[in-house]
Amino acid sequence: MSEDKARSTKLKFKGEKAKKKRQREDGDDGSSTRRRRRKEDDDNPDTWVLPETALEIRGPTFIMHPSDPSPICITFDSTRGRIILHTLDKDKTEGQTSLNLLERTPTEVSQVWVTTRVAGSPTINLRTGTGEGKFLSCDKHGLVSADREARGPQEEWTPIVFPDGMVALQNVYEKYLSIDEVAGGSFSLRGDSEEVGFAERFWVKIQSKYKKEAYEEEKKKKEGVTEDGKANEAGTNKIYQAWGAGRSVVSVEDKKELKRARKEGRLAEALLDRRSKLKSDRFC
Fold first, then answer.
1. For the CA atoms of the chain, what is the radius of gyration?
2. How many domains does the chain have?
3. pLDDT averaged over 10-residue windows placed end to end, the chain, 284 residues
4. Angle at Cα 128 formed by Cα 160 and Cα 215, nearest 5°?
5. Nearest 5°: phi and psi at 208?
6. Annotated region Disordered: where (predicted)?
7. Counting Cβ atoms within 10 Å, is residue 46 exposed (0-12), middle (13-18) or buried (19+)?
8. What residues make up the domain containing 89?
9. Does residue 7 form part of some domain?
10. What global pTM score does this model have?
11. Cβ distance 125 to 107 under 8 Å?
12. Do the domain assignments include residue 253?
């Protein structure tokens, strides 16, 4: 009697291709195997990676916090319609006990948020990956929820990426998202921190293809390439050599100099016109 094969519980996204298992070659040491796996992961567009800049945070997003004694991730319970801080140690299997925090990936769709942004905007919106799609929001009192289907100012977050790779999320009230320990040793999300400390720093992971997409977009902007493939040098120079996204911004002193130059220029023109008129009167 043949035994039924156990069904895999690994999280998969729509369009994700199944990986082929590779047997270890004879004489192959562990280090070369790890290098080969890293290369395969780099080539796989669905690999979970850390963003290097705020513009790279887009698409499916996995948010973790290195809490003690167990790291947690921000999860949305679509059944109860509320945010849950899920303990990642509960997801450990026999083969995952050796994984450190930065090697963790989501095991359930409820652990994934979808990051969107308006083109050119520094702020992002975080929408739940399950249920009807609700946005992560924070009110003026610092209460964090995910129960709104429309986005507004309270659903906007500004990601700040630190040199060590960790990310802080600032809301519209210029306060930071943080992990808060409540009675009984459980945790909750708050959005009223004035400064960034340990509780306000998160590890954020995105998929490799979205990181590459952000890189290509930024590269095109720097090169000043338009849709027809021609370099718009004038527009590029104005955007990247001036503040305010192409709008010329000068200091107060420069404004005074410009004003004085214009005034002197108008006086010089008036004198020239006066002299020309006098010469013409003499010959009349």
1. 28
2. 1
3. 46 53 47 55 83 95 92 93 89 61 92 91 93 92 95 96 97 96 85 96 96 90 65 45 42 61 61 59 53
4. 45
5. -55, -40
6. 1-51
7. middle
8. 35-218
9. no
10. 0.65
11. no
12. no
